[in-house]
Amino acid sequence: MSRLDVFINRMVSQRACLDFAIEQTRGMAGPVFELGLGNGRTFDHMRERMPERDVYVFERKVESNPASTPEPEMTILGDVRETLPQSLERFGPTAHLIHADLGGHNLEKNVQFAREISPLIEPMLAVGGIFVSSDRMFFTSLTELPLPADAIEGRCFIYRRDA
Amino acid sequence: MSRLDVFINRMVSQRACLDFAIEQTRGMAGPVFELGLGNGRTFDHMRERMPERDVYVFERKVESNPASTPEPEMTILGDVRETLPQSLERFGPTAHLIHADLGGHNLEKNVQFAREISPLIEPMLAVGGIFVSSDRMFFTSLTELPLPADAIEGRCFIYRRDA
Ligand SMILES: C[S@@+](CC[C@H](N)C(=O)[O-])C[C@H]1O[C@@H](n2cnc3c(N)ncnc32)[C@H](O)[C@@H]1O
Ligand code: NI
Ligand code: NI
Predict the structure, then answer these.
(1) How far is the CA of A153 from the centre of ligand 2 (A)?
(2) CA dist., res. B11 & res. B38, Å (int)
(3) Which of residues 90-149 of B touch A (CB under 8 A)?
(4) InterPro entries this protein is in (chains A, B) (predicted)?
């Protein structure tokens, strides 16, 4: 596999998981959270396929393409290790879709970071809410779901709060 | 279409066109040219699927991922408007596969640039050689080919020297 193949697999998987989560949570009230804006491509996808829902973006430093930069009032600036606990106080356990793509190039660091933020994300999901991630997470109360068609094993992960 | 959709279409088209060109030119002698290194993903794809061929990379400023950075002797540093004419003197009309992904975000500038470099690329291709591009080009002696399955109209272009 070339780096081009790996990259395409990752993007296609991300889209398949997002589309699955969007369908599964259609009609649920409460906010949607995008953790990590980056270029803004997945944010653009989420707001386009869910125009009826509020998509808040958590980001340390906004450097997205101008075509997909969120409104200031939808941007939650800062390190997610601080902004997630603050947002739990603000929103309560109401999120019905959270997407995280926070990882960098260092695999070991990504695992460590996933361990760190798993307990911060877990309480934010409403019952029936879905969490989509590029990294394997360390949850104690969420159920890992099988991936939809088109998604590639190990490239994305889906979790749901069942109760 | 979200920016994620557009991006996936572009990457998938690029790969489909490259794979088609690699198959069509299999067994031909002469160098392969990658115009524009960027992150190095398509370069990585080309060298992985053509380990038997010499892939030279034309780039102004190397900023690729270390996992896909070409050897110094395979890197032709500088503005392609200067390095293409120099390489024509060095290699003659021997290239059998050239891939260009030089465009930026400004569509109008991309068209202007494609006009400028078309006459510089055209004489470098050997008979039977194929040129794959993310932009429509302005050639006078090359034949535009239909796209392979998986490639999306308008996202990539394929040209061949027939004589
Ligand atoms: C890989 S990019 C996201 C790409 C995005 N999914 C897209 O499609 O364009 C990761 C982003 O997460 C952000 N990030 C990483 N760690 C963070 C942290 N601890 N707090 C807030 N943002 C963080 C980075 O600044 C970067 O913009
Ligand atoms: Ni490989
Ligand atoms: Ni659109």
Answers:
(1) 17
(2) 13
(3) 105
(4) Methyltransf_put (IPR025690), SAM-dependent_MTases_sf (IPR029063)
Q: Which 3 state secondary structure label does DSSP give A46?
A: helix
Polymer length of chain B: 163
The question of ipTM being above 0.90 is answered as yes
CATH class held by domain B3-160: alpha beta
Dig out the tokens for A130 from the structure.
Answer: 């879905």
In angstroms, the CA A50 to CA A63 distance is 23
Match 């396929």 to its residue by tokens.
Answer: A49
pLDDT class of B162 with cuts at 50, 70, 90: very high
Q: What are phi and psi of B108, to 5 degrees?
A: -65, -45
Ligand 1 pocket test: pick from A32, A34, A101 the residue with the most ligand atoms within 8 Å of its Cβ.
A101
Q: What is the pLDDT of residues B116-151, one digit of tens each?
A: 999 999 999 999 999 999 999 999 999 999 999 999
- State how far Cα B39 lies from the chain centre: 14
pLDDT at B105 over 80: no
